[in-house]
Write a structure and sequence with these properties.
Heat Shock Protein 90, single chain, about 5% strand, Proton glutamate symport protein, globular, 2 domains
């Protein structure tokens, strides 16, 4: 079923409202409608500017329904223009360019729901409003429980020798296939994610003074939170982890436990062959190449063309990763069977500590946010935290900072008194940097595995771990299970085989809920700090 409408510049608000009204009669929920409205608004303005149209500009909007799935297509005739890709900087129109960049950042935050194609003489942007049967989180939890039940049944019904054969002949091969698929994507996803971030945050003509200040605030917060995350991790995981070590011994019995040298890391970070980092497991070399290429691009007069290519590659590999992530519920089912058969309840106690640590990370970020707002913006930390804690329920339940953007913008304006121009600019861009949840996830999982291997805790290892967590937390792509990709990179950086990520993948749905709330809280706080330093916050809402 297909119904077509027109969105015009002269009657923009009414046209958007009409489409939203029609979508409300489908199975799309309130949150999906808010997200779709935001995407349609920003896409329309990007098309209008990118195609150089005036006030007579109009777009055809086609609502498509196939079974329970609902989508909207924006169809525009004219020259090729992809609203997901940043335009070449216009040095003579900095203010308007800034506004367009903010719109581009919002659209890229929803890259999983938006797709662009070019057909004949038309630009077509497809926005996914509601997907039939899209219950990844629910399915993953069901698979976790089902895996435990199946494992218990197998242990009680099958002889030990046949059970061992079943593990080796069925469970292990399936697990290896998924891990190999995931490892295949690590290098390209990390490389283009970091390179794209370098390009986005280094062009001062695009970001302006306000953007540079936002990046400074965000990087300072993540630097401090990384330190807090590592301190909390070492405090939580003090002794050996025998249950976790039992899971790792089979895979990594050849793993070297030699001391690491931070100076050796600095020397080895430059690859002899530029291809090697993409074929091996040295993620630090991949990071170096991405940062090095980013610096070169930002000082090259013809760098705009490179920018478009990098953005398209980043979108492509994130799309590929999102397809692989669809297999996560099945892999969780296999992992839970393997874990339950191998260690029984002991491993769940150890993984429970990891969940507890990530939950504690959310509380630590709240306390840090309250102190930062009190010192910089001169706002009561108690009143601010009451608002922030109540808001955190939204990203926690959605398990996606991107999906929570419309509600975050509304919260910042109405509850925190932040000027709408500041929040509209800061929230979408800040999502790329304020990934405090990733800091705690990477730190907790890494320290737990280090303890399981009984690796010596040396200053070199700590420095190497801090560097890897700090960089990879910001490089984390905005797709589900991307934290596992980054964790494998951190493992490789500190000398642990990347395949060890299997031990935590089965509980990532639970961890993602806490980590999303943690990252969203950090993003809101950085926006509050920016608004406070810009004098764009209404403090009367705190009285």
């Amino acid at each position: 079923m297909k119904v077509t409408y027109k969105i015009t510049s002269k009657n923009f608000e009414n046209d958007i409202a009409l489409i939203e009204e029609k979508l409300s009669k489908t199975k799309a929920g309130k949150r999906e409608l808010s997200r779709t409205r935001l995407i349609l608004e920003e896409s329309f303005h990007r098309f209008k500017k990118g195609l150089g149209r005036g006030e007579d500009f109009e777009v055809s909007a086609a609502i498509r329904q196939r079974f329970d799935s609902v989508s909207v297509q924006l169809i525009v005739q004219g020259s090729e223009f992809n609203p997901l890709v940043k335009m070449e900087p216009d040095r003579e129109d900095t203010d308007e360019l800034d506004e367009d960049d903010y719109r581009c950042a919002i659209l890229n935050a929803y890259v999983r729901q938006v797709g662009y194609t070019r057909k004949n003489d038309y630009n077509i942007l497809t926005v996914s409003v509601h997907e039939a049967g899209s219950h990844t989180i629910r399915d993953t939890f069901v698979c976790m429980v089902a895996g435990i039940i199946v494992a218990v049944a197998l242990k009680n019904l099958m002889p030990a020798d046949r059970l061992a054969s079943f593990q080796e002949g069925f469970i292990v091969p399936l697990r290896t296939i998924f891990l190999t698929l995931l490892q295949m994507m690590v290098a390209p996803v990390v490389f283009f994610s970091i390179l794209s971030g370098m390009i986005s945050m280094s062009d001062k003509n695009n970001l302006g003074k306000r953007g540079a200040k936002l990046i400074g605030i965000s990087l300072s917060m993540i630097f401090c939170i990384t330190i807090l995350a590592l301190l909390a991790s070492f405090a939580l995981f003090r002794g050996d982890m025998p249950a976790i070590r039992q899971l790792l011994q089979h895979e990594l019995q050849e793993q070297s436990l030699a001391d690491f040298s931070f100076m050796d890391m600095l020397v080895d970070i430059i690859p002899v062959d530029i291809v090697d980092p993409f074929t091996g497991s040295n993620m630090l070399q991949t990071l170096f190449i991405a940062i090095f290429f980013g610096v070169i691009r930002n000082h090259w007069p013809h760098g705009a063309r490179v920018m478009v290519t990098v953005q398209l590659c980043n979108l492509f590999f994130m799309r590929v990763l999102s397809v692989i992530v669809m297999l996560v519920p099945g892999f969780v089912f296999i992992s839970m069977i393997n874990m339950t058969i191998s260690t029984g309840a002991d491993s769940f106690v150890a993984l429970g500590q990891l969940v507890l640590g990530n939950a504690a990370g959310l509380v630590i970020v709240w306390i840090f946010a309250g102190i930062a707002v009190m010192l910089v913006v001169k706002i009561s930390p108690v009143k601010y935290l009451k608002k922030l804690i109540s808001y955190s329920i939204i990203p926690f339940s959605l398990s996606s900072s991107n999906a929570a953007i419309p509600f975050t913008l509304e919260f910042c304006t109405e509850k925190l008194g932040i000027d709408n121009k500041i929040s509209t600019f800061s929230i979408p861009i800040g999502i790329q940097f304020n990934k405090a949840g990733a800091c705690f996830f990477l730190s907790m999982a890494s320290v737990m595995t280090i303890r399981a291997y009984q690796m010596p805790i040396t200053p070199d290892l700590i420095a190497k771990l801090f560097f890897a967590v700090f960089v990879m937390s910001m490089a984390k792509p905005s797709v589900p299970a991307a934290g596992i990709v980054c964790l494998s990179s951190v493992f490789a950086a500190i000398g642990i085989a990347p395949e060890a990520v299997e031990i935590v993948l089965c509980i990532t749905p639970i961890l993602n809920m806490f980590n999303t709330a943690t990252g969203a809280s950090c993003n809101v706080t950085s926006t509050t700090l920016l608004a406070g330093t810009e004098g764009c916050i209404n403090k009367s809402v705190y009285k």
